[in-house]
Amino acid sequence: MVQQHVWMKIGDGTSANIWFDKWDVVCPLSSFITPRAIANAGFTFKTKVEDVYRQGEWEWPDQWLTRYPILLNIQHINMRNMNDKVVWRSSAGKEVEYSTVNVWDDIRVAQSEVQWSSMVWFPQAIPRHSFFLWLLVNKKLKTQDVMARWCASGNMNFNLMCCSLCSLGPDSHEHLFFECSFGSQVWNGVKDIAGLSSIANSWDMIFTHLVQVANSKNAMHVISKMVVSAAGYFVWQERNFRLFTSKKRSAERLVDIILATVQMKLHTMRFKRTSQVERILQDWSLPRGLIVEDDDNG
């Protein structure tokens, strides 16, 4: 995968190996010219480009042009009085500066950006919360309804499973966030301060709203994304605590943890002075020193 992007830029042709380096789109030539054919033609594995390209022409054995007609497609090169150089060639066929960013862009499987990307990944986000939210959006959490589908024909009786938070039927993405009576209490405890008081206890409704404000830099919109991801993260954590350990926290305690976590993150942020920001500082008990005054240059 990486090798196809590593090219030898021909200078004087004294360093580039004619068989194994990639200096043309048909290279490496060793992919179709066998070692026996190379030896029979009087070449060695160390043959360089300059040994085969002389006076502006390729000096291939005559029988090779019939046996390997692809050699006719090799472009003529401009030999220069400079060293051959290893370069990175992008997927677009352009020679670019080597960097991990360019390598990653060229070797990864790229897909169209989804509409919710900025809802999950944004500069102020808490990384572990973002990763959890990515799982939630893609419905990749190992909820009981998902596990039941995996073993529908097995010996385990998943009908006996129930939500560890409310004990009313198996849990699911929609149930936990936030239709479950426990999850609903948590959501009701945090949504007002996040400016989401009008959003119902439904993940679909919450998701739709956050997608609409995903790219907004408005302070309240950023906070709403932080609160939703934190609420989902800690509800899922509580679900697992109760399922696999004897630990148990009340919905009120979870609300306090969520708000304290977001508040701690807000202490690392800076805000421009607006009437909305003044209210945010007051609601979240934040110091006024977080406000950055605009200078004359904006």
Characterize the structure shown.
With 298 residues, this protein is mostly helical. It folds into 2 domains: 3-107, no CATH class; 117-292, no CATH class. 42% of the residues lie in helices and 6% in strands. The protein has 13 helices and 7 strands. The protein has helices at residues 35-40, 49-52, 62-67, 100-107, 117-120, 127-137, 144-150, 173-179, 181-190, 203-212, 219-244, 251-266, 275-283; strands at 6-9, 53-54, 57-58, 85-89, 95-96, 271-272, 291-292. The strands form 3 sheets. A 3-stranded antiparallel sheet has the order 1-4-5, with no helix packed on it. A hairpin with a 5-residue loop joins β4 (85-89) and β5. The chain is elongated, with a radius of gyration of 31 Å. The two termini are 46 Å apart. The model has no long low-confidence stretch (mean pLDDT 91).
Number of strands: 7
Give helix and strand order, one letter per element, not per position.
Answer: EHHEEHEEHHHHHHHHHEHE
The portion of residues assigned to helices is: 40-55%
Q: What's the story with the biggest beta sheet?
A: 3 strands, antiparallel
Low-confidence stretches: none
Helix segment tally: 13
**How many structural domains in the coordinates?**
2
Q: How is the largest sheet built, in terms of strand order?
A: 1-4-5
Strand composition percent:
5-15%
As a whole number of angstroms, the C-alpha radius of gyration is 31 Å
Distance between the termini: 46 Å
Overall mean pLDDT: 91
How is this structure best summarized?
By secondary structure, the protein is mostly helical.
